[in-house]
Batch of 4 targets.
Target 1
Amino acid sequence: MIYMELLIVLAAIFVGARVGGIGLGIFGMLGLGILVFGFGLPPGKAPIDVMLIIVAVITAAATLQAAGGLDYLVKVAEKILRRNPAMITFLAPVVCYFFTLFSGTGHIAYSLLPIISEIATDSKVRPERPLSISVIASQQAITASPISAATAALLSAELLGGKGITLGNILMVCIPATLIGVIVGAIAVNFIGVPLEKDPEYLRRVQEGLIKTDKDEKETLSPEQQKRAKLSVIIFLLGVLSIVLFGSIDALRPVFEIDHKKVTMEMTQIIEIVMMSTAGLMLIFSKADIGKAVKGSVFIAGMQAVIAIFGIAWMGDTYFNGNMEFFKSHIAEIVTAYPFLFAIALFVMSIFLFSQAATVRTLYPLGLLLGISPLALIAMFPAVNGYFFIPNYPTVVAAINFDRTGTTRIGKYVLNHSFQIPGFVATIVAIIVGYIIIAFM
């Protein structure tokens, strides 16, 4: 039965990818309906927080575009990239990596993906390259962040914290390991696909008028408009920076007393409030045209991403949670028989759980029980970043929808998508580098 359910999930992703646009969400929801009403699986958790984060971020990014800020960023980037356009493929993932590292959440990537896509498209760089590795970078950085839930779980007294491992030990291994993995991944994606101007899907969209390639068609901003555009960029970047600070410094986050307990405001709520407020400030000070914002490419792509995530992510959560006991028991049996396969088990389990922290809490007790060295378990930590494997994770789906050129895509066989190569390269390299580092500790 479980394999029939998996077939439904893969078929929904396949058909949705072929339809494109909101098709992923529609057919994801159709697949969810079959799983729930046909196979009797209880509905999983709908990705409401993720959807609201994307709505907030897209509102801010669309307002930035309407204010001329996105065009301004593109022009600045073009000057930097004129000599070496491929630079965006290296700069974008590094920026995503450090933003995630300091904020402790990969959701911050949503604010960067539309900008990366637009800059790459206008610079005639195949957007698939920087977008795919940027998504992977935001995942890898979670296992190097001192404030992520995954690191906190790993450092808990029940796991490595009780074995004499400190936060410094984890960061000493994971920051260089994952960063090197991301850089090597960025090198690898440079060999993916044909140049943008030779890509058949891109050429089809240009021919059908879906993408404008004539830069002269863009509005020439007056000095006053340029001033407002620059101001909108400053406001937007300050908004993103404030999210990083809130994620990095717990003391900045509001604390409320609820039922006589002190509760710290969650980062998801902070991101939503800050980004929507950022949009409001841009409307006030940059005098952005709100009507233009909802008609822009960023807003349209973002709303498509929300619908796609609604169906696909909910379907995936329903399938994996409905069969969790099966996955746990089978993976435990394999690892018990072959302890050296623990890193692979972590990778596989993360595919099913869609959470590094949940994977750590689920499998690391088994790793300790098997007598695996705590340092080796640190080196294996990046292996929990396997949820790019099936293309239904929100940041993956968002990146696909933000790419107007169609180069970032789900392949004919579903699993041959844009994120496999950078994901595997970054993860494998990070683990290898991690093992090299612990050899000197």
Target 2
Amino acid sequence: MDSYFKTLGPLNGELTEDFNGLLAPVIRQPIRLEDSQAQPNLAIEYAPNQDIPARQPRQPSNLQDLLRYAVEAGSRSRAQEAPNINRAASMNEANRGFLLDALNSMMVNVGAELEKIIKTLKENQDQKDICIGALDNLSDYICSIDYANDFLKMGGLPVLQPLLEGSDPELRWRAAETVADIVQNNPFSQNFIIQTDFLNLLLTSIEHDSNTTVQVKSLYAVSCLVRENEECLKEFIKRDGFSVLLRCIQSKKEKLVIKSCFLIACLCTDNNQVKQVLLSMGMVEQMCVLIDIEDALDTEMNEHLLSALASLIKDSPEAQSLCRLEPLNLKFKLNFIKEKHAGNEVYHKELEYVNSVLTEVFEEDSPEEFDHQDR
């Protein structure tokens, strides 16, 4: 077998120092890769004047990266305007110190900030404005899952309980909203909180609080807690959470109805256990009765009731059979809504659910316009 000799051309490197003190080699000579004469057709050459695509700068992910990105972009722009000017000189100490001071002033010790917030909430439970300010600051951090988890690990949850149980409705709903922000799409926080009594506190607020905003925010927190978390859902069922949702729907408070139906629709999807629980407590019949073709005809409540009902009856012959009970008068209601809102784009989703239920329960084909619309 022929042997090949590959010669690597000289590599000249020049070191330049950027503003952050990082050293990067700047390659001045192209690399030439040559094979022996035995294999001339395998030779690969990189001509010195060959156009090589410029390396795209790394996208900034924090303040330090953003500053570096801006400096590099400015340098490239100036280089294009005056390519013959050498700008490879090191940054002088004065400018370097200024940039470092600017970066340090923008960096925040989040752990220290969380400790400060916890202390503020603990020591100022009766100072509404101070607590609101602390909760607002906290919301800036707990949108990050890591910082939300840190808040719980540092003992932040107990300082929220007095606010949730307190006399001021604004602090109650803000505390519930904070819990929702902490647990949303966050398995660690969900599993952490479900080990406490907070689910009971939230369910109590939903059912008994006199302020609708507190009820809605508490329901939002429960929804964030139990969706897509089997352990939390088991606790929710164990503590009779669906009965709380049923009473929310029966209250006919629009926001409570909408959020309750949304949660039911989510939990019913591909979950036969949830469907059986709801069937056993008469949820299908209640939803059919609560579909209102008079007072609520022009509200969003019917749309969300129908959405939840469509999820509940899907692939469930038992639920579909219940919908056909004559006293419920469901078919008449569905056809009335269908006729009333026909051609009105505002009610497009509601009409989708109407046709879905008619098809599933009464074996009526959906109109062609719904079969071909882009959903």
Target 3
Amino acid sequence: MWAASCLASCCAACACDACRTVVSGISRRSARIAYCGLFALSLIVSWMLREVAAPLMEKIPWINTFHHTPSREWFETDAVLRVSLGNFLFFTIFAVMMVGVKTQRDPRDGLHHGGWMMKIICWCLLVIFMFFLPNEIINFYETISKFGSGLFLLVQVVLLLDFVHRWNDTWVGYDERFWFIALFVVSLFCYLASFVFSGLLFHWFTPSGHDCGLNTFFIVMTLISVFVFAIVALHPAVNGSILPASVLSVYCTYLCYSALSSEPRDYECNGLHKHSKAVSTGTLTLGLCTTVLSVVYSAVRAGSSTTLLSPPGSPRAGSEKPLLPLDKAAEHEEKEKSKPVSYSYSFFHLIFSLASMYSAMLLTGWSTSVGASGKLVDVGWPSVWVRIITGWVTAALYIWSLIAPIMFPEREF
């Protein structure tokens, strides 16, 4: 017994030392990666509790307040929402605290980049505290999460449009034959991929012998968008380019596939998964990892976007101040000045807050369960319509970005 106690104490001490070593190694440059790691950890915790916490939560009196105990899926959804709420509050508090931070001399700059041991402890306490809240608060959070998830998807679309336009401007700006050829090759590949992918969608999701008019409508609308992108972008009156149009075509086609593959497994027109009533652990893990990477990328990309988030006067916002001083006198003078932050800390945390809502909706199937698909990640009709509408919004925003300068020539876009 004494030996076991000593061994446990040694293990606990080693674990604490390891945690202190990790958090002390988080520098200014790696802070955003650390936030992403914390967010990814929240998704892993949500997934684990979704799988194992239901029997325990059924015995908690302030959660199971029903005369008739709900289904297991209800407790799984509730566990995910409670972890998501804790994560949402953590990042929202930081978003509010970081409002107005413009220079690195602001004391809140150190709070944003340091104090990781305390941050992890606070995050754990927040998540644990969420399991003591009444169900009414969780139900309210579930409702607003649907709207927050929509905002997050809108941010994703804006970031994608910003990315493809900057990609095109960079290659065209080289003004060399090689880059023009590369632009043409990439555009051609994207269009071929869109058409081939669309053909596969017809094969997978409009099986013969079934009335699949809705799926056909989704695929045809996507193809129409692909043609409209090319026609508008190449119109002489529009200052467009074929590269953004082709990349957006692939993205909209992917959204259509993602929507159709999220249809219930027992839906007769879901030919890709019609024989799959459940998923293996490997498939479920792959789906969750894809979700994590997508959400984390969007948050990091938003946190470093030069268009959306860089405060005025920051180096990324186009400040003419040299990043490296030319001599020691200039270096000393530069150190005396307040260094601007390179991105908006507040908006960075806000993106993670919205991403917390979005990930909760993915893990709960937008708080719905359809038969055997209640165990699947992001499956159900709400998931289908969210992706379809996201594709339509993407198409509308891209077309607007092309025609707005013509409709309002006196305004700068």
Target 4
Amino acid sequence: MVAFRTNSAYDRFWEGRKQLSSIEDSITNAIRIFQLSIHPKNEQERLDRAQAMKNLVAMAYSIKYYLLAKPNYFSEKMKGLVSPKILEIGGVDSSSPLDEKKWKISDNEMRSRGIFTKDSLNLPITLAFEITNYLEYIDRSYIVPTVYLAMYNSVNIITNAFVGCIRIQTTPIPHAYNSHLHMICTLYLLSIPFSLNGEALVTFLVVQFIVTFMLLGVLSIAEEIENPFGSDKNDLPISAYCDNLYEHLTFVLSNEKEL
């Protein structure tokens, strides 16, 4: 049962990594396709294309903050990515600084989030609508149909991965299973002294310590990694993934003429 508990927790951790990797890959590919396959005819169309690519990276950041139970949060980078209209919808003053270091996030708070909540803006879904609206707006006469379909699919994959992350986060291991497993481990540890009856005190203490450390340590690890979305060292480095996408976008936009 302990092995099953640990394997289940790691499966959730690995599934979370796959979902984030899917988001990262899709955004990277979408930026490349947008840049090379959409040919603006004037300055306004060029700005619209750039904003669509910024919205893609903003989706990654918005998914990060949504998973961290801060769905209405706009970091300084996000303020430079999203349009003023999105900032207005989110009720954020683009001139007001926000400090991420003051956050205190618990697993219960993160797990209380669903796909839609009444008290907050679902920014990832909103940005997905914005990007889809842009794809409907552009002139498709010069775009190969398969390439245009790939643009649409990229948005769909990002959205599906976001929903997958929410599924992992809001579906914890059943409480009854956890309680029963802890009870079994406790009874087993309490029974060890009876199985070592007659052994030297030092031997008894060493065996008791090792077995207790192993069992409780494995259970603690399982509880720690079953929710891979957080801000401590045992969670997935979502910030690093988002920053990589931001740097990629910055490179593409700064070398737009060469590309």
